[in-house]
Amino acid sequence: MRKIKMTPYMIIALSFFTVIILGTILLKLPITLKEHGSLSWIDAFFTSTSLITITGLTPVLDLGSSFTIFGKVVIACMIQIGGLSVLTLTVYIMTLIGSKIGFNNRAILKESLNQNSLQGLVKLVKRIIMISFIIEFIGFIINLFIFIPTMDNTYHAIGVSAFHAISAFNNAGLEILGFNNHFLNYHNNLLFNINTGVLSILGGLGVIVIYEVMKKRSWKKLSIQTKITLKMTLGLLIMGTVLFKLIEQNQMTFLEVSFLSINTRTAGFLTVDLTKVKSLSIAIIIPLMFIGAGPMSTGGGIKVTTLYVMLKSLFSFGRGSQTLTHKRLITDETKIKAFVLIQSAMILIGISTFLLLAFEETNIQTALFESVSAFSNTGMTLNFTHKIGLGSKTILILMMYIGRIGPLTILHLIYSKKASNSNLVYIDEKIVIG
Amino acid sequence: MRKIKMTPYMIIALSFFTVIILGTILLKLPITLKEHGSLSWIDAFFTSTSLITITGLTPVLDLGSSFTIFGKVVIACMIQIGGLSVLTLTVYIMTLIGSKIGFNNRAILKESLNQNSLQGLVKLVKRIIMISFIIEFIGFIINLFIFIPTMDNTYHAIGVSAFHAISAFNNAGLEILGFNNHFLNYHNNLLFNINTGVLSILGGLGVIVIYEVMKKRSWKKLSIQTKITLKMTLGLLIMGTVLFKLIEQNQMTFLEVSFLSINTRTAGFLTVDLTKVKSLSIAIIIPLMFIGAGPMSTGGGIKVTTLYVMLKSLFSFGRGSQTLTHKRLITDETKIKAFVLIQSAMILIGISTFLLLAFEETNIQTALFESVSAFSNTGMTLNFTHKIGLGSKTILILMMYIGRIGPLTILHLIYSKKASNSNLVYIDEKIVIG
Ligand SMILES: [K+]
Ligand SMILES: [K+]
C-alpha cells in the first residue's frame, strides 16, 4: 500500500482544521461551560474557528459569563496556539522532546512562516516564541496597573490582565470580562489605550520584524522587507487616524480614532460603537481590514507588503518601466503572486457577501463589512454575528479559515494536480485587455 | 519654438474632452432647450459627458420634455459620436475629404481601437461605420413596428424608432420619449425586448467580432479573441438571467430578468424599477456592470477578455503551470496588464464610493452602485443622479470619462515621463506576499 504524499499546503490546511475540531470539542466540555448545553455545536465550531484563526467574531453574546475559569484558560490557549500558528508550535514541541526535524517538516514550516530559506528555521521558531512570551509578559504587567485599580476582585483582575495581554499581542480582539461592552468603558483610559494599542501594533508587525529591529538598531541595515512593513504600517496608521478624525469630528476623541485606526489593521478591539459611526467611516474600515498587517505576523488581511507590490506595479506600468524598490527589481513572478492573492481574496469576499445577502435580511454595506472582517481575521462586527442562521455561520467559518491559511494555499489545494504538459513550448497569444 | 510632442494617450484624452466641451455648449443653446436656461452649466456638462461616454446617467429628470426636436437630434448625434468613438470618426472623415493619413494618426487609431496591427486600420474603420449603420437601420425598421402602433403621433413614433435604434446599438441606455418611465411600459412587449436586447448585445460584442463571424461562418476559423468574447458574453448573459430569476422569482417575468441581464452588461436600459429589487440582485448587477462588454465594442467595463485572462491566471497559478488558452500561451505581460487594469479600476471605484459618501447622505450599497455604473458607462441608477450636489456630479463626470478612455490611459498620462534608468540591470528582491 502506497502512502498518500501530502503537500505542505495540505498539511497546513489539515493541521489548522484538526486543531479547530479539537477546540470545538474542548469548548463543549461540561467543565468549560458554566451552563451545560448552552452552546450549540455550530456555535462551538464557529467560536473555535474564530479563536484558532484569531479573528474574534463569535455568535456568543458574552464570552465572559458563558465560560468557567477553566473555559477562559482554554480560550486563551487557543488564541495563543492560533497566534504562534499551529505548525510553529508543533515544530517547537518536537525540538523540545528531542525528535529530529527532517527536511519535510522544514518544508512545511517554510510554507507556514512564509520564509524563503530553510536554514535556521528551528532557531527562528524558538526566537519567535521567546520574544512573543516576553512581550506578552510585559503587557500583562502593565495591564495589572490598569485592571487591579478598576476592579473589585484582584484575582479576577490578574486573570483579565493575562488574558488581555495574550488577546492583544495575538491580534485576537476578544474580550472575556463577564459584562457587556467592557472595552467601551476604557475608551478614555490612556494607559489601557497605549498598552493594548502597542501590543496590537507589535503583533501586527510580527516578531521577525521586531527581532530584526532589536538586533540591527539602524534603519539602513534593515532588510527591504522590514523597511516596507514598517513604512506601510506607520503610513496606514496615520492615514486611518486622520481620516477617522476628519469624518467623525467631535463624535470621537483623538484617543478613540487612533485606537480605531490601530484595530482596523486586524486586531479588532473596539472602544466605540460601530453601529453608530458614519457609513463613511465604515468605507474606511473595510479597505484597512482588507489590507491588514505585516506578512509574518499574528495579523491577517492581504498584508501590507502585498499592497506595496501592487501599488508599485501600477505606477511602473504607467511609466512603462521595470518595477523597482530600494534599487532592487520586483520580478513579474512576485507581481503576479500579489495580484493573484488580491484578486482571489476579492472574489471570495464577493461570493461571501452575496451568500450572506441570500441568507439574511441585510444590505450590501453590512454583508461586505462582515465578509471582509471574517476573511481578514479582524473580527469587528456591525452587530451581525449574534443573529445569523446556520448558512451564514458556515460562510463566515469558511471565510475565517481561508483567510488564515491564505487564499493562495486554497488555490494550490484545488489545482494540485501537476501540469501534465509543462515541457511543451507554446506560441504567445495577444489578447486585448480593456 | 518646439512643438509639444503629444502621445497617443494625450490625444485620446484631449479629443474626448474637446468633444464633451463642444457638446456642453450645444446642449445649452436656446434652440436645443425647450425652456431657455432650464439646464445649468454643470448639468449640461454632466449630460454631455454622459452622452459622449455613452453612459446614460443624467441629472435631467426627463430628457424628452426638456429638449426640442433639434435638441434630440443633437443628443442622438452625440451618442453616435461616442459610440463610434471620436477618433474613428475623425479618421473616417479625413479619408472622405481625401487627406492622407500619416503614420501618427494610425498610431492614435491603433490605441483607440485597441488593435495590435497598424495595417488595414482605415479599411477597418470604414467597415465599422458601415456595419454599425446597417445594423442601426435594421433596428430602426423593426422599431417602427413597435412604436407606430403604440403612439398617437406617427412622426413622433418614427423619430423615437430612430433614436432608440441608435441608443440601443451604442449601449447608451438613454430614452427620450417625453414621458416618465417609458420603457417600463414596454416591459412585456416581446418585439421591443428582442429588438432592443439584440441591438445591445451586438453593440456589446463589437462590430469587429460581428464582421469576423459574418466573414468566417465557422467556429473553428474564428480568432481566439473572438471565441473568448463570444463564450464569455453568452456565459455571463445566461448566468445573469438564471440568478435574477432565482432571486426575484415571481417578482419578475422571464422577459424582465433576461432584459435586465442583457442591460447590466453596460447598455443600461431598464424595464424594472431598480429601487424595488432585492439587495441580492444589486449585488449581482454591480459585478456584471464592472465586467462589461467586449473589448472593441460600444460597451464599457473592464471587458470580458480581461476577466477571462484574470480567471485563467488564478487557475494556472494554483496549478503552478503556464497560463494557456486554446493551446496558446498567455504571457506574463498580458496577465500583468489585465491585473493592473482591474486593480486600478477597483481603486478608482473605491475612491469614488468614498467621496460620494462624503458628499451625500447615503450608504455604501448606493454609492458603490452609482460609482460602478458611471465607471463602466452603464448608466443605471438607484434614483440617485437626480438629487446629488456639485461635488458628487463632478465625481461621476470624472468616473464616466476615465471609464471610457480607460484607467490604463490615465496611468500612462500620469506617469508619462520616460524611465530614466531603464538600461540598468537590477538585482531581484524577494518580497513576501500574503
Ligand atoms: K482579530
Ligand atoms: K450605457
TrEMBL record, chains A, B:
One biological process term in Gene Ontology: metal ion transport
Q: How does it sit in the membrane?
A: Multi-pass membrane protein
Q: Where are the transmembrane segments?
A: 6-27, 39-61, 73-97, 128-148, 190-210, 230-247, 280-302, 338-359, 395-415
What are the UniProt keywords, alphabetically?
Answer: Cell membrane, Ion transport, Membrane, Transmembrane, Transmembrane helix, Transport
Q: Does the keyword Ribosomal protein apply?
A: no
Give the molecular function GO annotations: monoatomic cation transmembrane transporter activity
Q: Which gene codes for it?
A: trkG
Q: What is this protein called?
A: Trk system potassium uptake protein TrkG
Q: Name one GO cellular component term.
A: plasma membrane
Q: The organism sits in which domain of life?
A: Bacteria
Matching InterPro entries: Cat_transpt
Q: Which PANTHER family match?
A: KTR SYSTEM POTASSIUM UPTAKE PROTEIN B, TRK SYSTEM POTASSIUM UPTAKE PROTEIN TRKG-RELATED
